[in-house]
Amino acid sequence: MQKGNISSAKAADWLDVSEHDVQFWRRGITVPPLYAFNRIAKALDVDVHWLCTGQSQQHVHHA
C-alpha cells in the first residue's frame, strides 16, 4: 500500500473494514482475513503470494 501511495482510510473503504483494522495490518499487529488479501491484491494489481510473503511466486521445473 505504501508503494501505491494508498492511505489506510482508502484501503479500509475498498475492503469495507475499519481504518483501525488497516492500521493494525500495516503495523503487523493483526493479519487481514483471506478475503481482504484477495481484494488488496486485486486493487493493487499484485500477486497474492507476493502480498503475503514479499516474494514473487516462481515455478521451478525439474529436468
What order do the helices and strands come in, and which of them pair?
Blueprint (H helix, E strand, L loop, with lengths): L7 H8 L3 H9 L6 H11 L3 H6 L10
Which keywords apply here?
globular, mainly alpha, 63 residues
Question: Main sheet, how many strands, which sense, barrel?
Answer: none
What does the average pLDDT come to?
79
The number of domains: 1
| Percent of residues in helices | 40-55%
Reading the helices and strands in chain order gives HHHH
| Unreliable stretches | none
- End-to-end Cα distance, whole Å, is 38 Å
Radius of gyration: 13 Å
> What global shape is seen?
globular
Strand-residue fraction? under 5%
DSSP, total strands: 0
DSSP helical segment count: 4
What structural class do you assign from the helix and strand content?
mainly alpha
Give structural notes.
Helix 1 (8-15) crosses helix 2 (19-27). The protein has one domain (8-53). The protein is globular, with a radius of gyration of 13 Å. It is 54% helix and 0% strand. The chain starts with 7 loop residues before the first helix and ends in a 10-residue tail after the last helix. The chain has helices at 8-15, 19-27, 34-44, 48-53. It has 63 residues and is an all-alpha fold.
